[in-house]
């Protein structure tokens, strides 16, 4: 178990479904909720432990489409745009001061599809002081963690 996963499991009802590279799949609840999660990397390749994360929340029901959620490593500036870059694709995100998300289910589906074929994704904005804020996530293991999360809550 990685240190990051151990921290995510501390003082919670989360159950690990597995760890692949820097991505973990977890089940939380009740009611059951499953998701794949990772922490961003620093420029030196180590895990950024300031509290940021990317999560792909498994959804059940007619669409079954997962939803992407981010917690930023630092608060963003008021009105600063949120852009997610995955390979050569760019996605405008919605969000609050410390969070970001896809604006709709179609964008969620496009982001998750892009994640499956890329090496990394970077969420970029400006922080409260107007400095660049970029949270970069490696995507090795993400597809497997997303699939495990989707399967982890099936029929629960």
Summarize the structure.
19% of the residues lie in helices and 37% in strands. The chain is of the alpha+beta class and 156 residues long. It has a single domain (3-152), classed as Invasion associated locus B (IalB) protein (Immunoglobulin-like, Sandwich).
Descriptive account of the structure:
With 156 residues, the protein is of the alpha+beta class. It has one domain: Invasion associated locus B (IalB) protein (Immunoglobulin-like, Sandwich), CATH 2.60.40.1880. The chain is 19% helix and 37% strand. It contains 3 helices and 10 strands, in the order H-E-E-E-E-E-E-E-E-H-E-E-H. The protein has a 10-stranded antiparallel beta sheet with strand order 1-2-3-4-5-8-7-6-9-10, sandwiched between helices. Strand 6 (82-86) and strand 7 form a beta hairpin. The chain is globular, with a radius of gyration of 15 Å. The two termini are 25 Å apart. Residues 1-7 have low confidence and may be disordered.
């Amino acid at each position: 178990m990685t240190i990051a996963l151990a921290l995510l499991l501390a003082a919670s009802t989360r159950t690990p479904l597995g760890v692949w590279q820097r991505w973990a799949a977890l089940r939380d609840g009740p009611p059951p909720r499953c998701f794949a999660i990772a922490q961003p990397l620093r420029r030196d390749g180590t895990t950024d432990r300031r509290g940021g994360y990317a999560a792909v929340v498994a959804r059940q029901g007619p669409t079954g489409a997962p939803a992407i959620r981010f917690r930023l490593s630092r608060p963003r500036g008021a009105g600063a745009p949120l852009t997610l870059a995955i390979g050569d694709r760019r996605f405008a995100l919605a969000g609050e001061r410390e969070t970001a998300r896809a604006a709709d289910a179609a964008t969620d589906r496009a982001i998750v599809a892009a994640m499956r074929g890329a090496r990394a994704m970077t969420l970029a904005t400006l922080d409260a002081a107007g400095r660049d804020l970029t949270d970069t996530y490696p995507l090795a293991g993400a597809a497997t963690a997303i699939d495990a999360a989707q399967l982890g809550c099936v029929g629960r």
